[in-house]
Design a protein that fits this description.
The protein is built from 10 helices and 10 strands. By secondary structure, it is α/β, with parallel strands linked by helices. It has 2 domains: 84 residues, Arc Repressor Mutant, subunit A, CATH 1.10.10.10; 203 residues, D-Maltodextrin-Binding Protein, domain 2. The termini are far apart.
């Protein structure tokens, strides 16, 4: 049977205008002009062959018919809105919001992320990066990959990998004209620093026993940029060995020395203790912890 329904767009305009009893305020809510709202309501009045509003100069009022009609259609519109929201919730994939330390995301997480999507195609991952610890109180985040000691107040942490650092350079620089056979040879080369990890060279030199001035060299905005500079033969960077598997395996970077400093720092997956972990977060945690174990 053919439904005798009114034109739905004018009906929507009437709903908003009737609730506000104002074409101007309805136009503001709908992002339209006042004249456009008035015209759409007039279309509905023409279909119904009744007046829904009484217009008295600058004042707008619902007629008795308009008031009864608005009261009758509101429950139906509410039901349509609720049914639409339910369908959208069912069909939409849950979004997992993850914040990661930038170097970890670039060199370790992103190359593996397709494997999580293969295991869990029902979950969409939204990945952002930052050096600062995530503020779960004020940011819409589920999980964070953070670098540090692993003890953050109010957060539960799972260690993914320890911090292991050593100098890395290009094969061309290693085999170039300047010798690079012992730690003291670093004096003849440019040391590459990340502004967020300025103590790495000093820590490694103290561990390796080298009397080299760690303050000289070039400073870059991130560890990733120091690695790029090292591959470009600009100098020698301090590399986080666990994040450079591909570069070391391909030979783009090499270790000039066999001295690797392992510190108490590391990369951790964290979330607020008070919030617990939902299904999507538990799935991601199980996957990333398994990947970290497999890469050791």
């Amino acid at each position: 049977m053919f439904r005798q329904l009114p034109p739905l767009n004018p009906l929507r305009m009437f709903d908003v205008a009737g609730r506000h009893v104002s074409f101007t305020r309805a136009a503001e809510e709908l992002g339209m002009t006042q004249a456009a709202v008035s015209r759409q309501v007039a279309v509905l009045e023409g279909f119904l062959k009744v007046k829904l509003f009484a217009r008295h100069h600058s004042e707008l009022q619902l007629t008795d018919t308009g008031r009864r009609y608005l009261a009758a259609i509101l429950p139906a519109l509410d039901m349509i809105e609720e049914a639409t929201a339910d369908v959208r919730r069912v069909d939409a994939k849950p979004i997992l919001r993850v914040r990661s330390y930038p170097t970890f995301a670039r060199h370790w997480l992103i190359p593996r992320l397709s494997r999580f999507s293969a295991f869990h195609p029902e979950i969409d991952v939204q990945l952002t990066t930052a050096v600062a610890l995530a503020d779960f109180e004020h940011e819409n985040l589920d999980l964070c990959v953070q670098f540090g000691e692993g003890t953050w107040e109010g957060l539960t942490a799972w260690k993914l990998m320890p911090d292991a650092i050593a100098p890395v350079c290009s094969p061309a620089l290693l085999n170039g004209g300047k010798p690079l056979r012992q730690v003291q040879d670093l004096e003849r080369h440019t040391l590459l620093h990340s502004r967020y990890r300025r103590s790495d060279w000093a820590d490694w030199l103290a561990f390796a026993g080298g009397k080299v001035d760690a303050s000289h060299g070039s400073v870059f905005d991130s560890s990733t940029l120091t690695y790029q500079a090292a591959m470009g033969d600009i100098g020698i960077a301090i590399g986080q060995i666990s994040l450079l598997e591909r570069e070391l395996a391909s030979g783009d970077l090499v270790l000039p020395f066999d001295k690797i400093l392992r510190r108490s720092l590391g990369y951790y997956l964290v979330h607020p203790k008070r919030a617990g972990a939902g299904r999507k977060s538990v799935a991601f945690r199980a996957w990333i912890v398994g990947e970290a174990k497999a890469s050791k």
